[in-house]
Amino acid sequence: MTTPSPSPHLQSLQSQKVGSAVQGAAAxxxxxxxxxxxxxxxxxxxxxxxxxxxxxxxxxLVLGLLRAxxxxxxxxxxxxxxxxxxxxxRAHAAAALAAGSPLDRARVSSGLAASVIAEQAxxxxxxxxxYQPARWRVMVVPLAIATVVAGLSWVAALVLLVAAPLIPVxxxxxxxxxxxxxxxxxxxxxxxxxxxxxxxxxxxxxRALDAVDATAQRLGESAQSLRRRTMAVLRIAFLSSAVLxxxxxxxxxxxxxxxxxxLLGTLAFGTWGHRLSLGEGLFILLLAPAFFEPLRDIAAVxxxxxxxxxxxxxxxxxxxxxxxxxxxxxxxxxxxxxxAHAHGAPSVTMRGLHFAHPGEAPLFGGFELRIAAGEHVAxxxxxxSGKSALLSLIAGLLPAARGEIEIGGVPMTDRTATxxxxxxxxxxQKPHVFAGSVEANVAxxxxxxxxxxxxxxxxxxxxxxxxxxxxxxALGEGGVGLSGxxxxxxxxxxxxxxxxxxxxxxxxxxxxxxxxxxxxxADALLALAFGKTLIVATHDPVLASxxxxxxxxxxxxxxxxx
Length: 562
Ligand SMILES: Nc1ncnc2c1ncn2[C@@H]1O[C@H](COP(=O)(O)OP(=O)(O)OP(=O)(O)O)[C@@H](O)[C@H]1O
Fold this sequence. Notes:
It is a single chain. It is elongated, with a radius of gyration of 35 Å. It is 61% helix and 9% strand. It has 18 helices and eleven strands. The chain folds into two domains: 6-320, ABC transporter transmembrane region fold; 330-561, P-loop containing nucleotide triphosphate hydrolases (Rossmann fold, 3-Layer(aba) Sandwich). A hairpin with an 8-residue loop joins strand 1 (348-355) and strand 2 (364-371). Strands 6-9-10-3-11 form a five-stranded parallel beta sheet, with helices on both faces. It is α/β, with parallel strands linked by helices. It binds adenosine-5'-triphosphate (ATP). Adenosine-5'-triphosphate binds at residues 103, 105, 357, 360, 363, 381, 383-389, 429, 537.
């Protein structure tokens, strides 16, 4: 995965500003339109007939078209840039997730990550599309209108300016609780998704152990809590709009009352010494609602702002998690391309290796092991002695605290890990089978792996007799449709198609298999490992007896401790 450079990120924000500014400028066109309208009405009132209307009507029409064009152009541009910006944010979050060790226990749960990146992130678009242009308008339009109105009547301008600040003050007050409410709503949505995904994956266990009702009840409670939080967000959204409507209606009414009484001669002050004409009074009246309109717009999109900022926060959180592992950052990819071109089975050397899972007791404290090129080694040891951890360290899927791991004489570092991993075939203890066909599961979309390679790998591991392995047959999620032994053989076929894999790291390939199937799997593994370096973690004495060298981790670790 490539990390997008910051320049498109900045570019999209820049274009966003241009689009918002054009929309803001379009709103200002109401000033000349209102002036023309007031002029036309004054002309009619003073008996100039239809002749007084044609020119202003034409002007209003032209300005109206210009305004619509500016708004449409600005809106299109802002929308396109918002979507581009969202893609960049998603790519950053996904890259950050990919940079964390896949074996990190504290990794963000898949459900939460999917909810934030796929669903919650969408709230960024309305935020950028509606809130940002509204923010521009609110900064420019009321000030421009107040200045123009002040030129005609300082009293009318004063009324507008007194009513206006009450609105941002109140909005800031509402905004704090709106953001907190949106954040709580998104958290609830994320944790409900995470819970749902996890339980759906374990449905067979829940069903078999009669725990479906309890899970459904917990899900129901979670849905109720989400409903309450959504209602809280909506309540705040409605409250903020209602308050704004009230203030702006009061402001417009006061301006209208003043202008009306001024034209009648009752309130003769506030106009720099001259009486307002009918046209001027009407002009002020037409501008008063437009003064409050951007403020009302911003209230309408206040909820978008709260939801958008909460989504940005949630996306930011994705970037903060993760136990870094060698070469996990996209920037490290192929930093040392020469490593990838090395050929032949590599040696593996571990020197002074220290490792502990975060927050746990050390598993290795100065571990040493040398494996010759092409050697086959069985790792034995009690359950929990760290066999899987050692394989993951060699594969560079976990970071060593100290010490060195060398593969074919190349130390595993951030710069070399990606290239070294290309020479490794890794099969974990619980291979994940994706929903889809066996072919797709074996090929995993890797380049250079076509149908012929998959077919010969399937034959090598003895899966060709399995009906589900036939072309066009789909497996369910998590490998539903395959037996445990078949799933292990499928995982082995993934290594078999990996032509460059010259170091095979295999974790308990024969666990839970009957003697006959275990013998088949062992045959396939040894055939696959011919001419390659092989390290197998196992509890199976039969398999261990077929491997050239046995390393007992318990003994090794005890000797080092002594
Ligand atoms: N991702 C993880 N995060 C934290 N601790 C872990 C993690 N995986 C395993 N552990 C712990 O690390 C220790 C070593 O686990 P590991 O799986 O390497 O042992 P193992 O020798 O392969 O065991 P087994 O033979 O049962 O497969 C165990 O105590 C285990 O609880």
